[in-house]
Specification:
Length: about 140
C-alpha cells in the first residue's frame, strides 16, 4: 500500500492572494495622495496572583513593552514631489507589567495618559525634514 500524498490546495485567483492581511480595515478617509487616518492598539489584561496566603488582582493591567495607544496621521501630496504630514499619538497605561507585583497594592491612576508622539514634517522624494517634534519625558522609545 502506498503512502498517501497530502492534498494540495486549489490554486487561488490572483485577486484573492492580494487581499489585505488586516483583521480590521484601516480607519482612513481619503486615498494614498491625501488622507486622515486613525490607528491604535488595545493591550489590556487582568493579572491575578495567588501566593498561598493571599489572592489579589490588577485590572486593567497593560503590557509594559507595548502599551495601549491611539493616534492619527494626516498626509497630503503636494506639487513637485513635496508632501506634508503630521502624527499625534497618546498612550494610556494605568498599571504596567513593568511595575505591578503583589507588594504594590496601590490603586491605578486614571491620569496616566502620555503624549507619545507629536510631529509635523515636510518630505521631498524620501528625504524627511521634521518641522516640529517636542521632546517628551518618560517615553522610552519611538514606535
Amino acid at each position: 500500500m502506498a503512502a498517501q500524498e497530502p492534498v494540495k490546495p486549489a490554486a487561488q485567483p490572483a485577486e484573492a492572494s492580494k487581499a489585505p492581511e488586516h483583521w480590521i480595515p484601516k480607519l482612513r478617509l481619503g486615498d494614498d495622495n491625501a488622507y486622515f487616518e486613525f490607528y491604535g492598539q488595545i493591550n489590556k489584561g487582568l493579572l491575578i496572583y495567588d501566593d498561598g496566603g493571599q489572592t489579589d488582582n490588577y485590572f486593567p493591567v497593560d503590557n509594559g513593552n507595548s502599551s495601549s495607544r491611539a493616534g492619527f496621521r494626516i498626509y497630503t501630496l503636494m506639487e513637485k514631489g513635496w508632501s506634508f504630514g503630521a502624527n499625534l499619538e497618546w498612550e494610556w497605561n494605568p498599571y504596567s507589567t513593568t511595575n505591578v507585583n503583589q507588594l504594590n497594592e496601590d490603586h491605578f491612576d486614571w491620569g496616566t495618559d502620555l503624549l507619545r508622539k507629536a510631529e509635523i514634517y515636510l518630505e521631498l522624494e524620501g528625504i524627511r525634514k521634521v518641522l516640529v517634534r517636542p521632546r517628551q519625558h518618560g517615553v522610552g522609545h519611538d514606535r
